[in-house]
Amino acid sequence: MSGARIGRRSLLGGAGLVVTGAMGALAATGKPRVTIRTNHGAIVVELEAGKAPLTTANFLHYVEAGKYDGGSFFRASRTPGAPKEGTIVGGPSDKVRRFPPIAHESTRMTGIKHTTGTISLGRYAPGSATADFFICASPEPYLDAHPGAKGDNLGYAAFGQVVAGMGVVRTILALPTPGKSRFPDMEGQWLDPVVPILNMRRVG
Fold this sequence. Notes:
By secondary structure, the chain is of the alpha+beta class. The protein is 18% helix and 29% strand. It is built from four helices and eight strands.
């Protein structure tokens, strides 16, 4: 996995009874939608509750608790030589207390690939993911699970698709990234200023 393009951010472990209960509720409601409002406009994502129930329930747990409100898109990872391709990364404010991490739903399990508009949960090691997420502005197949590859080949947990607002995604991807990174291989990817997440609301 290329750490230079997407950092391993939290999303695994065991979100416990709250997420388990939410999974049961999702089964009856089909594909939920969430609107992500920013100062550059709104992004609407449709979540694959049937294919990625645990990851979807975890994301909605944060949305419905208001934990993304006041967060930000803080990273724009552009593909070298192709500035219109890459991912944008967002998450709650550093002050927000996160829920326990959840188990990893890899692309091999769900069948959801990292294509243009895919929303996926970031992580470090499998089982560490919590709330940071990213949206693909272009196909990013290297983020899928690749069984047989060396090292950690489980990819990231894709769980939905942008259905409105891809122009906003591309606008954020193109913003200046002079921010300081704690990770040397991610220099030139940190937004400054960050893009505020004004709020997130479930709309379906």
